[in-house]
Amino acid sequence: MTQAVPTIKLLIGGEFVESHSAEWRNVVNPATQEVLARVPMATQDEVDAAVSAAKTAFASWKKTAIGARARIFLKYQQLIREHMKELAALLTAEQGKTLADAEGDIFRGLEVVEHASSIGNLQLGEYAENVAGGVDTYTVLQPLGVCAGITPFNFPAMIPLWMFPMAIATGNTFVLKPSEQDPMVTMRLVELALEAGIPPGVLNVVHGGEHVVNALCDHRDIKAVSFVGSTKVGTHVHHRASLNGKRTQCMMGAKNHAIVLPDANKEQALNQLAGAAFGAAGQRCMALSVAVLVGEAQQWIPELVAKARGLRVGAGKDNPDLGPLISCAARERVAGLIARGVEEGARLELDGRDIQVAGYERGNFVGPTIFSGVKPEMSIYHQEIFGPVLCLMAADSLDDAIAIVNANPNGNGTAVFTQSGAAARKFQEEIDVGQVGINVPIPVPVPLFSFTGSRGSKLGDLGPYGKQVVLFYTQTKTVTSRWFDDAASGGKVNTTISLR
């Protein structure tokens, strides 16, 4: 007897409801091709119902005491910790990353939940007394209303937790659209959020593809849209939502570089390069996909290849070093770009296309792959591969290496490996990239700070989480007030602009 495949529900007005959509897609384990669940492509009516529920809930939620909001997220972070193993197993089954990396995915989102519980200290206005004769001025940070989030497949726990906790903690209500490729762990996190005390309608979830994205960008009752994903989709979201008068923050594609100077600690640098390039099978917007080897560091290639060759590839549940790519289509795309790299003249130092994993012959596996002699005009350089492929470039000096990085249109993250403080300072001052690592290959800051990708990797002024996201999810209202003593003279009519 064939076991029925579960269906992923929508969350509307505090209730998990079955979609009436005629279009459904399978959620597939990328290591085995097993169908884990079916996810609906929500209808326009269902999107409208979710937004309506959020709009109704906003009327009371915006008036909820800030301490009451904070306590919900104190409870929520506790629930996430208690269910960490369960959440990681779900994430690994549907996304493919290793159990250890899945826990890391969840933990980095958990840090933002913890930050949201400090909202009482984050959502503070300013006050100045007697700025003019008897006049006081102060500001308040008020919530916008209904906000929406569109999240990618590669971090199905962390990115949703970047979005809805801070939006809700600041007094907004939220409509979330998870990736249709791996929504199961997101929905479990949503269940825990309701258990923590988020009221009905404050958090809603719809599933779908392009038409649901467009519906969120177009809906007149949505005030802000947050997006993480590809440059193509992010550019579309930014333009469409902005034209409809919404705030947007779109964190998009990348081509992250590391510069390796010959004075770097060789063993540490090579370990960091391999981990940042091949971890999560390269499916990170902050993956280190290009290394610029300066001077004598170009002689380290054989040792880097040896480290990469020693990494273990397998199903995520077996906790190898890297798991499969998210889909068969992703594997074909990565393999095609590797072939193109060879055609365009790069030297293939390590080829991961033909890797076999015993017991998982249908898995979407690509092993660590390294090219040397990469040039800026090559497809493997100017396209985001989103697979376990590291491109090696050569430079004669730090100045030449910085010029290579700054010529690339993306600006998500970059790093330098060196033991020279002078070189590190020169690098951080002259590099035109929003997030800089010094002997740190993936320089994503903790939530006390903001995610600050730049240039072609970001559209919108304010980044996710940290201080910037409080400003994104609130409207600054300035109040100027004067109170008169009843016994005071009314004075005379003043037709000048001055308040003095």
Show the helix and strand layout.
Layout: E1 10-12, E2 15-17, E3 24-28, E4 35-40, H1 44-61, H2 66-82, H3 84-95, H4 99-116, H5 119-122, E5 127-132, E6 135-143, E7 146-150, H6 158-169, E8 173-177, H7 184-196, E9 203-205, H8 210-218, E10 222-228, H9 231-243, E11 247-251, E12 256-260, H10 266-278, E13 288-294, H11 301-309, H12 328-343, E14 347-350, E15 369-372, H13 379-382, E16 389-395, H14 398-407, E17 410-411, E18 414-417, H15 421-430, E19 436-438, E20 454-455, E21 458-459, H16 466-472, E22 474-482
Helix pairs in contact: 2-4, 2-7, 3-4, 3-7, 4-6, 8-9, 10-11
Could you list some keywords that capture this structure?
37% helix, seven-stranded mixed sheet, 500 residues, NAD, single chain, Ald_DH_N, alpha/beta, 16 helices, globular
Written description of the protein model:
With 500 residues, this protein is of the alpha/beta class. The chain is 37% helix and 21% strand. It is built from 16 helices and 22 strands. The chain has helices at residues 44-61, 66-82, 84-95, 99-116, 119-122, 158-169, 184-196, 210-218, 231-243, 266-278, 301-309, 328-343, 379-382, 398-407, 421-430, 466-472; strands spanning 10-12, 15-17, 24-28, 35-40, 127-132, 135-143, 146-150, 173-177, 203-205, 222-228, 247-251, 256-260, 288-294, 347-350, 369-372, 389-395, 410-411, 414-417, 436-438, 454-455, 458-459, 474-482. The strands form six sheets. It has a seven-stranded mixed β-sheet with strand order 14-15-16-13-12-18-19, with helices on both faces. The longest helix is centred in the first third of the chain and has 18 residues, at 44-61. The protein is globular and about 90 Å long. The termini are far apart.
